[in-house]
Structures are given as C-alpha cells and as structure tokens.
Amino acid sequence: MARYRGPVEKIERRFGVSLNLKGERRLAGKSALEKRPYGPGQHGQRRKKVSEYGLQLNEKQKAKFMYGVSEKQMRALFAEAKRRAGNTGTNLVVLLEQRLDNVVYRMGFASTRRFARQFVNHGHVLVDGKRVDIASYRVKPGQKVEIREKSKQNNQVQRAIELSNQTGISPWVDIDAEKVFGIFTRLPEREEIVIPVEERLIVELYSK
To answer: Cystine design at 135: which of 52, 117, 174, 184 (Cβ 3.0–4.6 Å)?
Structure first.
C-alpha cells in the first residue's frame, strides 16, 4: 500500500481521534474532527460493531497515518522491534519516534509531520552538519538536527516555532529556537510519548 496523499482530516474523522495531521487548524479549534465528530460519508454517523481484527487494523492504520509510513516500512520496523530486547510494542513506537521527519516535528521546527517530511525531502535539514534528505533516517541520541542557514527564516518554520510555545517541546530533545537547531538527547520512554495508539494491538496483528 502506497503512502496516503488524500484529505487528511477525513482520516481523523474516520478514527474519531486527532492524529495531529493538521497543526494550526487543530490548535485553533477549526479542525474537521471538532466540527463534525463522526465518520465521513452519508453513513458516518451510524454505530458500527468492530471485530477484534478490525480494532487491530485500526491501530496499525492510525500509526501509519500519524507517522506517514508505508505498509512496507511499518512491517520492516516491526521486524526490527521484534528482534530487539524488551517490549516489542514499545520498541516499535521508539523506532517511529527516531525517524528524522518526526524528530524535526518534535523539535517544533514543523507544525505537522507531513510538512517536516517535505522539508527533509527537499534538503532543508542537516544532521551533524551534513544534509540528509531521507525522512526515514534514524536519528541517534546525541545527534544534532538543524535547519540549514538559507531556510531558517522560512515563514512556515518560524510559525511552527511560535506554535511550539503553545504545544511544548518533547523532553527527549534540547533545542535552541533562535538558532533553529536541536539535540536528540536520548531515546524517549514510552510513557512520555503521547499518541492515540495502542501498539499492543499492532503487535497482535503482525504476530498472526
């Protein structure tokens, strides 16, 4: 399955939770989910009985849409999470959090992961002083992530930094908003990662 490129607010309405796919609209209370808190389409307001498989699939789909990964990438991450010591679900979430586009988002340099991914792909992001244009690049603790000099005054970057004052910065990154760079100081603990996903159900789905 290719990465979804359609209307993102329909996705949030389908699952009934905010996946932070629309940054500023969400913060302003103008998201489609707040205006119409039910599924899209003419049958969106009907109650549906969801099977156990359906619940598991929904959790996987939420994680995929939230982090912007394809099915192939998700399966590869799960396989690695399973190989690592510790809880497989926690390992999976931490691996998703280490993606470069997500780290740029967590540092407050992009209002959404989608914009962060676009910014990385267009070569605006440096890791330890070197340009990295692969959104799935895995950032390691201690690495420096910064917006390149020519892009620091980008209006969307500056607006994202303003909004981060309202939303806060993740505790596992240390940033200098004025110089637009940050350090990925450590791997996050699962309880620090606030996302509307039950990774246990994803593990159950892929373990079948």
So the answer is: 117
